[in-house]
Write a structure and sequence with these properties.
The protein has 116 residues and is an all-beta fold. It has one domain: Jelly Rolls (Sandwich). Helices cover 0% and strands 57% of the residues. The chain has no helices and nine strands. The strands form two sheets. Strands 1, 3, 6, 7 and 9 form a five-stranded antiparallel β-sheet that branches. Strands 2-8-4-5 form a four-stranded antiparallel β-sheet, with no helix packed on it. A hairpin with a 4-residue loop joins β4 and β5.
Length: 116
């Protein structure tokens, strides 16, 4: 039964002042994540305009969810029932960038299937 879905959770935070990224789910050799649900919370807005928060398929990888981070807010997401598939053995990453002055502070919590 090695191919059974295992539900896993992850959380992380990016802190303001400079462009930053953080790992929400750590890559596991031989495993693949399918992102199910979660929420990104902007707890300190980016300043100067243009601030973004994004979820990526690996650090610096494909952005599959991106939102404006210039205001305090919650950004719920739901990719059920199948989930958004990350590349095999690749981490889920969150990044804050593109603000003119200071980047946002954001937290992210996700639930995912772990396959493999």
């Amino acid at each position: 039964m090695d191919n059974m879905y295992k539900v896993t959770n992850g959380t992380g935070e990016c802190v303001n002042s400079t462009a930053e990224n953080t790992t929400i789910l750590t890559a596991v050799t031989g495993k693949t994540f399918r992102i199910l649900t979660g929420v990104i919370t902007v707890t300190l807005a980016a300043t100067g305009g243009g601030g973004k928060v994004a979820l990526e398929d690996g650090a610096g990888g494909t952005r599959f969810l991106e939102a404006n981070a210039d205001a305090l807010k919650s950004i719920p997401f739901d990719f059920r029932p199948l989930g958004y598939p990350l590349t095999a053995a690749t981490a889920l990453n969150m990044t804050v960038d593109e603000a003119v002055t200071n980047e946002a502070t954001c937290t992210c919590t996700v639930t995912a299937y772990e396959l493999g």
